[in-house]
């Protein structure tokens, strides 16, 4: 299944994340793909809010994973942009998170595709400057 959403402002991207967070189930894994500056953090903030998380959410670029426990489900936010080798994921307990009861969101998941679970939801965010500076094309695909 593939669904395309057109976002014309930051709030649209946030709202999509929020909606997905509200419906997320234990053990669900989202991957987030997109260039720098496309709105991955905006989407992630919406997803966290949809899970009931009220604390500030930021990209865990230097820590690889940030854990949020206060929502209706635990939220594990990964940013694997800076990993040098997929084996580094074992060191942070990747499988415990991804195969646990929380919701995982993995930014730059294409860098660790060989260890992604069999089933996940890919969120791909793309700009198209011809349609405006704030325009985003968001693809949601179930694997």
Automatic annotation (TrEMBL):
It is found in: Cytoplasm. Keywords: ATP-binding, Cytoplasm, Magnesium, Metal-binding, Nucleotide-binding, Transferase, tRNA processing. One of its GO terms (cellular component) is cytoplasm. One of its GO terms (biological process) is tRNA threonylcarbamoyladenosine modification. Transmembrane segments: none annotated. GO terms for molecular function: ATP binding; metal ion binding; transferase activity. Belongs to the TsaE family. This is tRNA threonylcarbamoyladenosine biosynthesis protein TsaE. It comes from Dorea formicigenerans. The lineage of its organism: Bacteria, Bacillati, Bacillota, Clostridia, Lachnospirales.
